[in-house]
Design goal:
alpha/beta; 7-stranded mixed beta sheet; two-stranded antiparallel sheet; 12 helices; 11 strands; binds pyridoxal-5'-phosphate
Length: 381
């Protein structure tokens, strides 16, 4: 680098770096699809579902058009609708609660844990009581593996079982992480993920998948994916959607999955470097015992009194991007403000919405780039 040139802008997520690494193999994979022309339900779709099942340990994988569709499909397949409560963390991306609301069910927002940002089991219990007080039937709980770290499945599954709810893991950000040595994809009745390009395992458009060990659920999901079709494809036996994953995206994901294990290692190394460089200055993310993270985001909390906008602006002057996930928790957003919140409120979600900020994170974040980010954070504070 010429010493008189300003340093290169740092991408928040460097999709182009992975593209450079995989360029030829992805071009060839897409070329094969262009040659066989089975753009819907081509052989790559089945191959991807098998590869994802092997990777996660789930018995069935049903690929679909997005992480949002994946959530809706599971709730549809379980007959969740009007009068039902679906317990969701408030501190999450809107799709978690939106899926329930779209089906006429009521999302009930519960709080998250201050250290892990994931669903707080004590608040979940209070949320179930709140749902009943509202005359709703608690049907499902959707823990989210927020920012990549697995939720507390032992605690959440035990509460769900005692209260008669099923667990749907929203792993849109967590696919590739594990809990007590088991990969995400096998907790609860079903797990969903997103292949949105910025996700740890992302495609080149929209995509998603559902993981389950339940044979009957998998069969219903395959039917819902194509308008609720039955054994005879023009006899639709239930309502469904058009929610298939394109063959082209499956072909791209197959190539990306081949290097995913290496990328998981690289992401963890980058997270450790951040923790070492920033741990004495800001609150860095903490992994709970038995949990790993795929580091979909690296989210820090600023010391009390630090102005978050000013901090972001200071980094921006050095071409270092930041992102705020999420400036409003779900219960604070216009579309969701009238849905119930667990008794005791969701103060942790509100605090996180006020002081959390995410730094660049991806598998190709090299040491010198990261040192630039760390130095900029230190000088901004
Ligand atoms: C927690 C969570 N759930 C669901 C989704 C929805 O995924 P998609 O964008 O593929 O519909 C996202 C996407 O950002 C997410 O972060």
């Amino acid at each position: 680098m010429n010493q008189h040139m300003p340093p290169e802008p740092i991408p928040f997520i460097d999709i182009a770096a992975q593209r450079r690494r995989l360029g030829k193999s992805i071009d060839e994979a897409v070329g094969r699809v262009l040659a066989h022309c089975q753009f819907i339900n081509g052989p790559e779709v089945t191959a991807l579902e098998q590869a994802l099942a092997k990777f996660s340990g789930a018995k069935h994988v049903v690929s679909c058009a997005s992480g949002t569709d994946a959530l809706i499909m599971v709730l549809m397949a379980e007959g969740v609708g009007r009068g039902d409560a679906v317990l969701c963390p408030s501190f999450t991306f809107c799709a978690t609660g939106e899926a329930a609301a779209l089906l006429g069910a009521t999302p009930v927002f519960v709080d998250v844990d201050e250290a892990t940002f994931n669903m707080d089991p004590a608040s979940l219990k209070r949320g179930i009581d709140t749902a009943r007080k509202h005359g709703l039937k608690p049907r499902a709980v959707i823990p989210v593996d927020l920012f990549g770290q697995s939720a507390d499945y032992d605690a959440i599954c035990a509460i769900a079982e005692a209260e008669g709810l099923f667990v749907l893991d929203d792993a849109a950000q967590g696919f590739g992480a594990s809990y007590k040595g088991r990969r995400i994809g096998t907790f609860g009745r079903a797990t969903t993920t997103s292949f949105f390009p910025a996700k740890p395992l992302g495609c080149y458009g929209d995509g998603g998948a559902i993981f389950t060990d339940d044979d009957s659920l998998a069969e219903r999901l395959r039917s819902i994916r194509v308008h609720g079709q039955g054994a005879d494809k023009y006899d639709n036996i239930r309502l469904g959607m058009t929610a298939r994953l394109d063959t082209m995206q499956a072909a791209i994901l197959l190539e990306k999955l081949k290097i995913f294990e290496e990328e998981i290692v690289a992401r963890n190394e980058a997270a450790e470097r951040y923790a070492r460089g920033l741990g004495n200055l800001v609150t860095v993310p903490r992994l709970a015992a038995g949990c790993t993270s795929i580091w979909a985001q690296y989210t820090i909390r600023l010391p009390a009194g630090v102005d978050r906008d000013g901090f972001a602006a200071a980094l921006k002057t050095k071409d270092i991007p930041t992102a705020i996930y999420y400036p409003k928790s779900m219960h604070q957003q216009t579309a969701y403000k009238d849905y119930p919140v667990a008794e005791g409120g969701v103060p942790v979600s509100e605090r996180l919405s006020a002081d959390a900020i995410s730094l660049p994170m991806h598998a190709y974040l090299d040491r010198p780039t990261q040192e630039r980010v760390i130095a900029a954070v230190r000088s901004a504070l």
